[in-house]
Write a structure and sequence with these properties.
- The protein is mainly α and 292 residues long.
- It is built from nine helices and no strands.
- Helix 1 (8-43) packs antiparallel against helix 2, helix 6 runs parallel beside helix 8 and helix 7 runs antiparallel to helix 8 (226-259).
- It is elongated, with a radius of gyration of 48 Å.
- The protein starts with 7 loop residues before the first helix and ends with a helix.
């Protein structure tokens, strides 16, 4: 069996399977022998038979033998599938992918080696392997080292997934913090450029500056804490929206106050008169052009 490269344990497993296959084969052969014996005992009672009678007996015997052989072949195929199922199940516990070469099943040289092994080594080791063999494969699907290894692999995969998720969360928080900081700086610049009531603008700038300083202080102090960082970002967004709303109200109030001033009304009257004069000049010009 050394030609196959098997160790002692796997050699014993092969012997166990061949012993099982040989017992099933012997049982099926006995069944076929009984079919012929039944025919002899039940039909071959006369000394002479016609051609039709012999043909009828042979047809009946053919049906019986064909059924037995077909049943044995089907059962052998299904048994091989169950054997492969055990091997693949054990391999998958260690994240292995086994491959088979169907063409090797018809390798005449290997088939002859198996037949030779069955004639020699199998018979020689039959008694020794009877005591050491087991009714199933090695207990890889039970406890022991394999179970510990599988648990360790699962634990490492779970830790890896947690670290990846935490990394994505921290990256998202960092990007959000930088984005909010940029928005706050742009809001401060917009407030500095805005026109209106100087006192109101000064108050708004102070509010934004204080909010920005508090935001940066809170951001730098709570970098190590995810929960505090999220709370700080939410608070900063609310403050920024509040400041923007105050600025919008202030601009609307200033515009309203400006519209109510005498200078605004005088300017509006002047613009109205100028528009009337322009309309009158356009009408005159059109009449001159028509006369020409």
């Amino acid at each position: 069996m050394a030609d196959f490269g098997f160790n002692e344990h796997h050699q014993n497993e092969v012997i166990n399977y061949m012993r099982f296959a040989r017992s099933k084969r012997a049982l099926r052969l006995k069944t076929i022998d009984s079919c012929f014996q039944d025919l002899k005992d039940s039909r071959l009672m006369e000394e002479t038979y016609t051609v039709d009678e012999v043909s009828d007996m042979l047809d009946g015997l053919q049906v019986l033998v064909r059924g037995e052989v077909e049943m044995e072949l089907i059962n052998t195929a299904h048994t091989n599938v169950l054997l492969l199922r055990q091997l693949f199940s054990q391999a998958e516990k260690f994240y292995l992918r086994l491959q088979t070469d169907i063409s090797e099943l018809e390798n005449r040289e290997l088939l002859e080696q198996v037949a030779e092994f069955e004639k020699t080594d199998f018979k020689a080791n039959s008694k020794v392997n009877q005591e050491s063999s087991k009714p199933k494969l090695a207990p890889l699907n039970e406890g022991g080292v394999s179970e510990l290894l599988q648990k360790e692999i699962s634990r490492l995969q779970e830790d890896n997934d947690k670290l990846k998720a935490r990394l994505r969360t921290l990256e998202s928080q960092a990007m959000s913090a930088l984005d909010d900081k940029s928005k706050a700086e742009r809001a401060l610049k917009d407030l500095q450029k805005s026109q209106g009531d100087q006192q109101e603008s000064t108050n708004l700038e102070g509010t934004v500056a204080a909010m920005q300083a508090d935001f940066e202080k809170t951001l730098n102090a709570n970098v190590a804490s995810q929960k505090d960082l999220q709370n700080c970002l939410v608070s900063a967004k609310h403050d920024l929206l509040h400041v923007q709303e105050q600025l919008s109200l202030a601009e609307k109030e200033l515009e309203k106050k400006f519209q109510q001033t005498a200078a605004y009304r005088n300017m509006k009257e002047i613009l109205t008169k100028k528009n009337e004069q322009i309309k009158d000049l356009r009408k005159r010009l059109q009449r001159y052009e028509s006369d020409e």
